[in-house]
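Supplementary Note 3. Input sequence used for the single-chain structure prediction.
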Amino acid sequence: MQRAAMQLWSRTLLAAATTAVAALALSTGAFAANPSHGLSAFGELKYPAGFQHFEYVNPDAPKGGRMSMIGTAGLPTFDSLNGFILKGDAAQGLEYVYDTLMTRADDEPDAVYGLVAQSAELADDRKSVTFKLRPEARFADGSPVTAADVVFSFEALKEKGHPLYRFGLRDVAKAEALDPQTVRYEFEGDRLRDLPLFVATLPILPKSFYDQQPFDETWLKKPLGSGPYEVADFKAGTFIAYRRRADYWGWELPVNRGRYNFNELRYEYYRDRTAELQNLLNGTFDLREEFTSVDWATAYNVPAVKDGRILRLTLPDAQPSGAQGFMLNTRRDKFKDKRVRKALDYAFNFEWSNKNLFYELYLRTASYFENSDMKAEGKPSSDELALLEPFRKSLDPAVFEEVYTPPVSSGQGQDRKLLREASRLLTEAGWTLKDGKRINADGRQLDIEFLIFSPSFERIINPYIENLRLLGIEGKIRLVDSAQYERRTKSFDFDVTTRRYVLRLTPGVEMKNYWGSSTRDVDGSLNLAGIADPVIDALIDNALAAGSRDELVTATRAIDRVLRAGHYWVPHWYKASHNVATWDKFSWPETKPKYDRGIIETWWYDKEKAAKLSER
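The predicted structure, written as discrete structure tokens, is reproduced below.
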């Protein structure tokens, strides 16, 4: 899916999809139909009414300067400034143009506090939530932000927005403007936990702008928002720059003090990662997160790093590390048998790759909830069994045993023991070895195409292909341009591709987008593996209905067991940190937000450091 849609969606989902609902938190954790300054999924809010600023910011941070960067890893181009639809490749950073009713606290797992909305009131039956807007809220053209704009935004996103929005809003029955500063959302169904915070974090779009601009088309017109930045300049596919708005209406709000300190945010686009790195090292731009282990280990051995002009930072990441791997498209007949999919896992030699390609910087991913307490371990607990037992007849018996973990190789190039097991599984699934080729009953050879858009992954896939060749499988790499890659992944036109999903600490309805039957055939969904299992659907519903974190953890562990037993992917690797290289011209608070990098929102341009840097 396109980057900006993902970024906007991640913000909407509190770091990666929908946010959990809103307990208007009391010390008892109970819900109450009283106006509150914030919403939280479980338990009480960290920050009380009347708080002055988040603890992880410097409220006196100086304003000014520029941060130029390569953003999160993604496709190296853009052709649209509309980040809310499936069409096109939208620019990075558009989320900073738009305000939301409430905004996330990055030191809490699932809490938001009033931004455009000064309060939220959740009904006793949780079937509705009412937001009271601040009358001073304004769009960048000076026009007021009203309840009518909130209603318009909801209706446009639900009817014409990216499938991620449409799906997440499915159980939101309607939004109604009760008066110019009051909007009420009504919900239906019995899976209500996620919905109030989800609607609280939807972008607010100006209805007047879209009266003149088609919502469901790509365009390169500068968008109108009510957020802290506006588009200043851009060249499609090359760069986009955002200007900090001096006239932004919300600078003195507690949720904004100490945040968004740069006068300019600039995203640079390169089609080649080597060119990205070289342009960072020669000072063309300021900051880059490094996603390639070999470059982090070897490519920064340059004078600017040695003398401290460029800093290499490792920022801890307390969020679930997510699920990265080779996604196996089970819509293809050759991947329908789970034994074939499991054999492909046995053929991937992570230990060799980690030693020879990754400088042993990574750990092997085993779980869809890696680096979190939601990861399944050992045999199912009694609470997990209570969820799984009703489906025992439909489940692989392995679900009730030790949870599946990827095999561990000897670390040699070809581990014969693991390859023998892979061969056995393939033969058992009807793919026999004849004249060195793995063929089925129709005499067709098993072949696998890996779809990529960057050559940087070839060094990882090629050794894997060699192992597949030893099994009689023909493997090949299909390197396409970014636009074609987007089209093909959105329409599921691939055998195998790589994707990383990062789940938030309180996962909700986004799980249906990753693994739910209802999204299997929805273009643009994140269900790349084509999972359609009624047991997983039921377990996701259990997770969505969880009334406590313990119940949520139990449900996600059960989901993890069933997914891992299904072998829908060949899991990759993870590290619980961000590797960031930056020129030494910035400063940051002593406390990093626990659940975010905090770079754009909490760092600031340091004039003294910049002056010293220019003197070196």
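The two ends are 43 Å apart (CA to CA). The first strand starts at residue 38 and ends at 40.
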